[in-house]
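Researcher: I'm preparing a figure for a lab meeting and need a structural model of a single chain. I don't have an experimental structure, so a prediction will have to do for now. The sequence is pasted below. Please return the structure as tokens so I can convert it later.
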Amino acid sequence: MRVLVVGSGGREHALVWKIAQSKLVDKIFCAPGNGGIAKLAECVEISTEDIEGLMNFAKKEKIDLTVVGPEAPLAKGIVDEFENYKLKIFGPNKEAAQIEASKIFAKQLMKKYDIPTADFEIFDSSSAAKKYVEKKGIPCVIKADGLAGGKGVIVAKTFKEAQDAISVMMEDKIFGKAAERIIIEDYLEGQEASIIVITDSKKVIPFLTSQDHKRIFDDDKGANTGGMGAYSPTPIITRELFDEILKKIIYKIINALAKEGFLYKGALYAGIILTKDGPKVLEFNARFGDPEIQVILPLLNSDLFEAMLAVAYNNLSKFLNYGILQWDKRTCVCVVCAARGYPGNYEKDKEIFGLDEVSKMKDIFVFHAGTKIKKEAGKIKYLTNGGRVLGITGLGINLKDAIDKTYEAVKKIHFEGMHYRKDIGQKALKFLN
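Model: Understood. Here is the structure written out token by token.
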């Protein structure tokens, strides 16, 4: 079968890597792809948001399944357009993708169907929002309604931080139309975890649990990013707690969407916080998590492509009859190597060293997130081309082993201005101790 993967990040590299292992797959294209993906797939210069271009390519190349990685094309309605032309595609349609594209939509849906989340208020005026914070108090969480590349959430622990956050979102418009409306919600205390499932709106297949590290610096300090590292599975989610999250959150939100007339197909991501009052939803995403999927897929022993194909054909129940997904019993850790300046304006075109050496290490995978290839004097060089450049990922017999192996590999990688967190997985080690 012929497959098109849409996207250019570490998530898409991990998806291409896993899809390439399927016996059903003959050829993979990736639009636009990156330097690492080019080793496994034919990269085509089509933007992720050029829906017409992607659709024409899928028709011309007789693509059997298109897999959408990032959220923007989903929010723009790529699934609707493909399905109008009877092209098979993995991902939710535009209406269902509102679960991520509009935080207000998601929060109102959760409130209506009694899905546990933080209390919130919605604002379309900066002055009203600021008055609310003065009355409500801090800490609080301020969120842009629309898509902001994982950076539209600010946790304000002082009144000044709250006022500044409201100003930059609604007055300075750093997120454009995404922050024409904002949410201010109660700050929740607790450990966070990521829950990812795939669904055809009738049946659900859960993936392993994971934990992301959103902040740019160690000890969860600094600005929010798209994710600086992750590990899977996370010991803070017990079997009993996992079942509770599936019952009270995952199944309920999929059923809620169906009751509202939105049949959700594809990957669903729930960002969960474990409070003293039980698990609550921080956010939903309409696609696989990044970098979470980079630590989940190396542990998957089953055929991912076959499962995604079942979702696209609305017969996940038939797929489940063959047995549930099989998982490796080890632990996986991913450390993101970022460019100088990320998550703000970052540098590009810095040569990356050490990739050959790391490629020889056992149980280590390098998922390219922001790279490109430069051919010079018959040799291939890899250059930085994004904020998050590489996801160095390692398997270990336990969490400590996986952490040690991964950081051993990270130390062999170098490019000018490279920085990374040095505490990925440490919270879980403290939990295990």
